[in-house]
Amino acid sequence: MISQKNILRQSALLSRVLIFMTILCLLLSRNVFAADEKKKDDPHAANSVSAPPPPVYIPPLPRHVEFPTVTYGKEQSVEGEMELNLATKNFWYVVVISSWNPKSKEITSILNHNYKVFESRKIGVIGLFSTDTVTSVSDWRTQNKPLFETGFASRNFLDALKNPKIPSVWVLGRRGEILQRLEIPSKEDMQKSVQRVMIMTGF
């Protein structure tokens, strides 16, 4: 009789435990289902999970613009008698100057002052006249005594540069890439340019 009572008590206890576990499972399932439904209804939550990160913009590397073929001669001409071989030097100063222009004289003075160092570092210099006569250039050479080569720029060369301002200065690499361009530079601009070239060749 006693054992039968114990069996009944254990059965009742087990039934209560099973009922409690069933209720607990139902509550947990309901909470999970509600959370899933909330994610579906919330577009921001959905995007935060599935949307890929925005692409990162990587700017392109700068490209050097190639300089037109430098053609020149002993007097004014369309095609020029000679062509400058840039590969003979590591860098080049190509300057378009004029006998009547005061700044051309100033640039010549700065280039003359540094010419020996240019030579030791394989930096070439050439001065090209655009709108001058043989007589005016001859007088200019006598007065300013340029240590570097000078000549008359060909018409084709000036047209390729779209008739540059006087004076204009370019620093070129040996493959014709333009490293620097100065239009009507001041004395300070020209000196800074020389310093920059000295740094580039100071190896």
Provide structural commentary.
The protein contains 7 helices and 7 strands, in the order ααβββααβαβαββα. The model has no long low-confidence stretch (mean pLDDT 84). It folds into 2 domains: 2-50; 71-200, Glutaredoxin, CATH 3.40.30.10. It is 48% helix and 18% strand. It has 203 residues and is an alpha/beta fold. It has a 7-stranded mixed sheet. This is Alkyl hydroperoxide reductase subunit C/ Thiol specific antioxidant domain-containing protein. It comes from Silvanigrella aquatica.
Summarize the structure.
With 203 residues, the protein is α/β, with parallel strands linked by helices. Helices cover 48% and strands 18% of the residues.
List the main descriptive attributes of the protein structure presented here.
203 residues, Alkyl hydroperoxide reductase subunit C/ Thiol specific antioxidant domain-containing protein, Glutaredoxin, 7 strands, rod-shaped, alpha/beta
